[in-house]
Amino acid sequence: MTDHDRFAGLRKLPRTPVAAILAQAGAEIEDPEGLTLDGPPERVLAELDGRGTGGIMGQIRLLSRALPAREAVWWSCLAGRDIQPAGRAWPTLKAAEDWVFRPAEATRKAAQQAVAAARPDEETDLCARAAFLAQPTGPEAEHLRPGMVGLLVEIMVLKSLLAAVPDRFAARGRLLVNRALDIARGGNGMLEQTGGG
């Protein structure tokens, strides 16, 4: 896929102007000067891409708010897999993935229970929290801050980005964004990084 095609066919992203997407989620793009925020996500993602490494954070912020909740949680799970220690299976990551594959009240509640039982070093609690809040019912629906799922997803993806060794930061950022773009096209986002870090 060429860079020209990289932002094409993102059928799971809304056709809404980016300014409205961000406003609804209570989020902002840092340094928005020169961005066409009244345009669709594809256009703004391409404009951010033109900023090189400096645009990666904005792309992650926008994609975490523009993807549908289930797809966004899956993206966070892929980021969680990046940082889960080899040979370990964090229960919160499994619970979040279970919800993605079977979004129902039972798997949503299981995600909440996994968070409650999580060890302090279990960073994928963010994935499970996002899964629990993605389809809120009862009291959490009334008190849920707009954009909370997107915020949790953004933080999880940033954890993967920041775990990259410094000379692989740009490559990891591009991988993370490419995963979200693949998901937005209807793919599974399971792209792998080549090389170390």
Describe this entry's structure for a reader.
The chain is an all-alpha fold and 197 residues long. The protein has a domain at 69-143. The protein contains ten helices and no strands. Helix 4 (69-83) runs antiparallel to helix 5 (91-101), helix 4 (69-83) packs parallel to helix 9 (148-163) and helix 5 packs parallel to helix 7. It is globular. The two termini are 23 Å apart.
What key attributes describe this structure?
58% helix; mainly alpha; single chain; 197 residues
**SSE topology string:** HHHHHHHHHH
Counting DSSP E segments of at least 2 residues, the number of strands comes to 0
Distance N terminus to C terminus?
23 Å
Helix content: 55-70%
| Global geometry | globular
Radius of gyration: 16 Å
Structural class: mainly alpha
Describe what is shown at a glance.
This protein is mostly helical and 197 residues long.
Write the topology of this structure.
Blueprint: H1 18-25, H2 41-49, H3 56-66, H4 69-83, H5 91-101, H6 105-117, H7 125-134, H8 139-143, H9 148-163, H10 169-184
Helix pairs in contact: 2-3, 3-9, 3-10, 4-5, 4-7, 4-9, 4-10, 5-6, 5-7, 6-7, 7-9, 9-10
